[in-house]
């Protein structure tokens, strides 16, 4: 009984420490992230006035063999407007040590999408969709990497501004 109470208290403490989180979802990638596989997240923000920080979150393991990653991120607004960004993120130091947090060989990377310099405002009511796909290429190759190994989870996160 005491063990169950301890586990419950630990879960409550861990969850309550993340007070900035508004939306945080992950999609698990099986053995590899296929170049045509689009990961989408749907959400309906309730606040259309306050600024927010938006992040792409990736988890990778030691099978990831690149020092960076290129992503194509599409944001679909309720009114039908769409914005598309091609983003590059650093995933490893020059010596090969992976960036991100984590105690094992799985590292979690919280990567800025919007809000870094100017807070992002969801100025329309309704349903938004963020879609992500990778755009990785080998050096000197025209065709993209078909099966991107080492990315285990792809996520999207919305946070309130730091207080």
N- to C-terminal distance: 38 Å
Helix content: under 10%
The CATH topology comes to Jelly Rolls
Strand content: 35-45%
The radius of gyration computed from the alpha-carbon positions, rounded to a whole number of angstroms, is 18 Å
Give a written overview of the molecule.
This protein has 163 residues and is mainly beta. It has one domain (20-160): Jelly Rolls (Sandwich), CATH 2.60.120. It has one helix spanning 2-16, and strands at 21-28, 33-34, 39-43, 51-60, 68-76, 82-90, 107-114, 120-121, 128-134, 147-148, 151-160. The strands form three sheets. Strands 1, 4, 7, 8 and 11 form a five-stranded antiparallel sheet that branches. Strands 3-9-5-6 form a four-stranded antiparallel sheet, with no helix packed on it. A two-stranded antiparallel sheet has the order 2-10. The radius of gyration is 18 Å and the shape is globular. Residues 2-15 have low confidence and may be disordered.
Give a topology summary:
Layout: H1 2-16, E1 21-28, E2 33-34, E3 39-43, E4 51-60, E5 68-76, E6 82-90, E7 107-114, E8 120-121, E9 128-134, E10 147-148, E11 151-160
Antiparallel strand pairs: 1-11, 2-10, 3-9, 4-7, 4-8, 4-11, 5-6, 5-9
Question: What attributes does this structure have?
Answer:
mainly beta, Jelly Rolls, 1 helix, 11 strands, 44% strand, globular
